[in-house]
Design a protein that fits this description.
By secondary structure, the protein is α+β, with helices and mostly antiparallel strands. Strands 8, 9, 10, 11, 12, 13 and 16 form a seven-stranded mixed β-sheet that branches. Strands 2-1-24-25 form a four-stranded parallel β-sheet, with helices on one face. The structure holds zinc ion (2 copies).
């Protein structure tokens, strides 16, 4: 009996050796084919918890597997270090965000090293350091030059707690701040945007990538393409230069059903169109609307509010005049900020019409409709009625006909709109990348010269949030010289959304120390795009969407030659504890360090893989991890115990060889498909079989040695420390992690097959080749499904089905 496996001492020993030997350093001039396996870098919020390990350990297993398959694998690690949470945490602790962030990084780096992953630490990137954010600023200037970054006044999402604006993507659930759950309100501010909407159509195209359907669906819904028509309504007035108001409608076929017209209270034409006697009421209503959150405004079933402006528009198709109202359920940010009210066919419009006694006119008849009032709005298809010459047309046809008429009259056109808005990237906070422009009273907005980058974040600024950019109060930062006219100017004081930093970090890993460029082009070309990206699905419409946009934008400014950054994407599920999502506020966060110290990193890695299908997540359980630790100890004993060959049995040798090749195949296929749990299950089954072989001593010593050597190799990606120790003790050359992945013999891996005879009422009707391990139920099911057999059964239900194991299935039908 060998000594018990000492996981912690062994892991420390090998981690030190691997680091000293630079085993995981990646070389750009390596001639093996490249494989870029990227896992999302962590946010520097504090400790690494089990959720991080769940994302990272199986990703490392995959990277190690590709490495053994002969690829030059880049699997880097870094830190997403700017942004609100770090800043808020620093403020609440009374320390500088830089100090807080760097302290967290030290701790997290130590924790990440304890995973025993293949990270090449010489390539680490940290987004809050000037050597990195210099290039974030440089990209900003590139987008600005290309017209893809612009400054505009717009109603924006405002979080009163975080005291900053938020991108639409950061408003979640019921209109809450993604960071702090505070209800978001609207503010009219001048802000910086990235023109992501220019890429709306291209962002819907996933033909070049292998991504999970649910992520593609979430992004597709977020981009929100809808087809319809832009229709122009003229304002009824004496003036020959009549004002026109454009609306976008997905239902031009309902135009005869328009009984009112609604503008968003923020619409620029409101004051011009307000009749003098309506002014007081309109002003009061607008002031009230400013205090409402967007999500309340558009909620279905909420009591509708609004006021009439006392003016009218004319329907461009029917010629009817309809009153103009303003109502808060119409948002300024979507479409044109105006809608045609069609209460018979839109639920919100119907609620509004009922509240204010406006007429409801059915123009699309549901099937079997006989002219009665509808109890609720009917948005479905039907036949056009009350629609003049269009009556009787199916509505889809009518829609086309009305679009054609609008285009002919010059009063509208077929159009497509998107839910996607431009990405708001400026933040009124301290802890972010300064936006590299200056404001000059003579020249306007002037970009900082490239050679003057980085614009450094002043370390001595007062960073506590005030609702305005803290940098405004840092005079030494603000005062500068205009790069164009050399007169006095002021620096922009907003910082960038930290999602800008994470939109390009995968490029930086290819040449992290490049001083004269964001990345070395040749190296970038040799590594990109990322072959496999792993991380959380919660990033679907933020990071993953932004990174796709950023890549396309960089392609269009000539910096990249591809438009999709991540060729294949796999998302892990969520790890819960006692059926609850882990969160600091619930106090149920499982810290991995304690388990690493007691049972070793290999046990934590193994348990996280075994807990369930990786893409589904699972429930952390202390007993479960102990079970994995015991199994690793069994493997330890199995490989280390002296093996004594007692009576060699050729059948047992044949069976062992078959099981070895079957296991290699299963582990290979499962790793490729991210099925870590079934991969480990097959290794456990294999070790159980090996225990029986060892106890019986039924195979030769040389076969035994060969089989346990393969077992070590198969375990190397999952339990890298244990595997290295077993390898070393068996006398093989260092390191197991430089060995080739075992190949399997398809012939040997194949199940033994037998011929099953299928009888109907005792007469042979068919024969079929099946695996010898077929179960009774499988054999019976297979027999019943054979075409030949079906012709004899003629749809009758058999009275009995008799199974003679490995030989015959007899289907008995008495009535024949
Ligand atoms: Zn907030
Ligand atoms: Zn100037």
């Amino acid at each position: 009996m060998v000594a018990r496996y000492d996981a912690t001492a062994t892991e420390r020993k090998w981690q030190e050796r691997w680091a000293a030997d630079r085993l995981h350093e990646v070389h750009d001039d390596d001639t093996r084919p490249k494989f870029y396996a990227l896992t999302m870098f962590p946010y520097t919020s504090g400790d690494l918890h089990v959720g991080h390990w769940y994302a990272m350990a199986p990703s490392d297993v995959y990277a190690r597997f590709k490495r053994m398959q002969g690829y030059n694998v880049l699997h880097p690690m870094g830190f997403d270090a700017f942004g609100l949470p770090a800043e808020n945490a620093a403020i609440s602790r009374g320390i500088h965000p830089y100090e807080w962030t760097m302290r967290n990084i030290d701790n997290m780096r130590r924790q990440l090293k304890s995973i025993g992953a293949v990270y090449d630490w010489s390539r680490e990137v940290i987004t809050c350091l000037p050597e990195y954010y210099r290039w974030t600023q440089w990209f900003f200037l590139k987008l600005y030059e290309a017209g893809l970054a612009y400054r505009a006044k717009a109603p924006v999402n405002w979080c009163s707690k975080c005291q900053t604006v938020l991108a639409n993507e950061q408003v979640v659930g019921d209109g809450l701040c993604e960071r702090c759950d505070t209800p978001v309100t609207k503010k009219e501010l001048e802000q910086w945007f990235f023109r992501i909407t220019r890429y709306a159509e291209e962002l819907l195209d996933y033909s070049g990538v292998n991504w999970p359907d649910h992520i593609k669906t979430m992004q597709t819904n977020w981009v929100g393409r809808s087809k319809g028509a832009e229709i122009s309504f003229k304002v009824e007035q004496e003036d020959p230069d009549q004002t026109e108001i454009r609306v976008f409608s997905t239902r031009p076929d309902t135009i005869f059903g328009v009984t009112f017209f609604v503008l968003a209270p923020e619409h620029p034409l409101v004051s011009t169109l307000t009749a003098p006697d309506r002014k007081a009421e309109v002003d009061e209503y607008i002031a009230w609307c400013r205090r409402q959150t967007e999500i309340d405004r558009v909620a279905l079933g909420r009591e509708k509010t609004g006021v009439s402006l006392g003016s009218h528009v004319v329907n461009p198709v029917s010629g009817k005049r309809v009153p103009i109202w303003i109502a808060d359920y119409v948002l300024p940010s979507y479409g044109t900020g105006a809608i045609m009210g069609v209460p018979a066919h839109d639920e919100r419009d119907l609620e509004f019409a009922r509240k204010f006694n406006l007429p409801v006119r059915v123009v699309i008849a549901p099937e079997e409709w006989s002219g009665q009032e509808l109890s609720q709005a009917y948005p479905g298809p039907g036949t056009m009625v009350n629609s003049g010459t269009f009556d009787g047309l199916p509505n889809q046809e009518g829609s086309e006909a009305i679009c054609a008429l609008l285009e002919e009259k010059g009063r509208g056109r077929r159009a497509v709109t998107y839910h996607l808005r431009d990405w708001l990237v400026s933040r009124q906070r301290y802890w972010g990348t300064p936006i590299p422009v200056v404001h000059c009273s003579r020249c306007g907005i002037v970009p900082v010269a490239e050679e003057d980058l980085p614009v450094l974040l002043p370390p001595d600024a007062e960073f506590r949030p005030t609702g305005e950019s803290p940098l405004k109060y840092c005079q030494s930062f603000v005062d500068c010289t205009c790069p164009k006219c050399l007169g006095p100017a002021q620096r922009e004081t907003d910082t960038m959304d930290s999602f800008v930093c994470s939109s390009w970090y995968f490029l930086r890993y290819t040449s992290p120390h490049s001083k004269d460029a964001a990345f070395d082009t040749a190296r970038m070309k040799s590594w990109l795009p990322v072959d496999m990206y792993t991380g959380g699905a919660e990033h679907a419409v933020m990071h993953l969407l932004y990174a796709r946009f950023f890549t396309k934008a960089l392609r269009d400014v000539g910096l990249l030659e591809f438009g999709e950054p991540f060729t294949r994407l796999v998302n892990q599920g969520i790890i819960v504890y006692q059926s609850d999502k882990m969160s600091k506020s619930r106090g149920n966060v499982v810290a991995p360090d304690k388990y690493v110290a007691e049972l070793g990193a290999d046990a934590v890695r193994g348990y996280l893989m075994f807990i369930g299908p990786w893409e589904m997540g699972g429930d952390w359980n202390d007993r479960g991890i102990v079970g994995i630790s015991r199994w690793l100890n069994r493997v330890w004993n199995l490989v280390n115990d002296d093996y004594a060959s007692l009576a060699v049995d050729p059948e047992a040798e044949k069976e062992l060889l078959h099981l070895l090749h079957k296991t290699i195949k299963k582990v290979t296929v499962d790793l490729e498909g991210f099925r870590f749990n079934t991969m480990l299950a097959s290794l456990m089954e294999f070790t159980n079989h090996l225990s029986r072989v060892r106890d019986g001593g039924v195979v030769s010593g040389s076969l035994w040695r060969e089989v346990v050597r393969h077992l070590s190799l198969l375990m190397a990606p999952s339990a890298p420390h244990l595997a290295e120790e077993l390898w070393s003790r068996a006398g093989y050359p260092y390191s197991i992690h430089n060995q080739a992945w075992p190949a399997y013999d398809e012939q040997l891996a194949r199940e033994e097959e037998i011929t099953l005879a299928i009888q109907v009422n005792g007469k042979l009707r068919d024969k079929v080749l099946v695996p010898a391990s077929i179960s009774e139920a499988e054999a019976k099911g297979l027999a019943m499904s054979r075409e030949k057999v079906k012709t004899y059964i003629e749809g009758k239900v058999p009275d009995r089905v008799i199974y003679v194991p490995k030989r015959i299935v007899n289907i008995v039908i008495d009535s024949m």
